[in-house]
Amino acid sequence: MHIKIKYAEGVRKKPIADEWENIVCLMAHKYPLMKPLLLLKSQIEVTENQINVYMKIQGADFLKARKLDRELESVIENIFGKKYIVNIEERINAEEVLKQKEKAKQVQQKAIENVMREAMEAQRMAAEKQAQNSGENVQNNHQQQSHQNPSTQNYEQYPASEMPPIPEGVYNDADYAIGDTVPYTLTIHVPANIAKMATFKVVDTVKASQLQARSHPFPHLP
């Protein structure tokens, strides 16, 4: 929608140069996709029937491709009641070019830092997740082995350094343990005619009754 303003006779209108920022803001409200705010810091030169817009940043071709110059002509005519030809061009000095390049470099560097920071955070979270899963797997395997071998589970309750002592009693009165050297004596009956024998053989006979171990109940450890 276009608004055309008609002024009463004797009304004094401000120059276009003084109203330029207001004109750009109006354009930004009506045509945001045309990016008219790119003209906000530009300088203008108004002649009899022409308005030259000198941009301090790049983007003149972009604005003209979107026909922003033609829309400016229509808006200015509706507000000021006069037809102007609008020309948009770039006038960027070397200092401004350096400033723009430096700003673009800073923006690019910041974007790279953000990407790297996000990548490192993703790696950290993945490592924590993997460590958590590994811990759960170890715990599950330990529980499974404990269920399969309950005797091992009972012994693990008491580390070797904290095992309770075996109390004294009839179940602990063995003279020797496995691996001990056991002294013993052989009683040999020598025959009276041993002097006439060419060979004398000694045989140690163990009876089955001698191999029976004493059996006593072993108290249940807590």
Short account of what is shown:
41% of the residues lie in helices and 7% in strands. It has 222 residues and is mainly α.
Topology order in helix (H) and strand (E) letters: HEEHHEHH
How many β-strand stretches? 3
Largest sheet: 3 strands, mixed
Lateral strand order in the biggest sheet: 1-2-3
Q: Helix share of residues?
A: 40-55%
Overall shape:
rod-shaped
Average pLDDT level: 78
Tell me the strand percentage band: 5-15%
User: How large, in whole angstroms, is the Cα Rg?
Assistant: 53 Å
Low-confidence stretches: 218-222
How would you sum up this structure, described in words?
With 222 residues, the protein is mainly α. It contains 5 helices and 3 strands; from the N terminus they run αββααβαα. The chain has helices at 20-30, 60-65, 68-80, 94-148, 150-156, and strands at residues 43-46, 50-55, 85-90. A 3-stranded mixed sheet has the order 1-2-3. It starts with 19 loop residues before the first helix and ends in a 66-residue tail after the last helix.
Descriptive labels:
about 220 residues, rod-shaped, disordered C terminus, 5 helices, mainly alpha, three-stranded mixed beta sheet
Please render the helix and strand layout as text:
Blueprint: H1 20-30, E1 43-46, E2 50-55, H2 60-65, H3 68-80, E3 85-90, H4 94-148, H5 150-156
Parallel strand pairs: 2-3
Antiparallel strand pairs: 1-2
Helix pairs in contact: 4-5
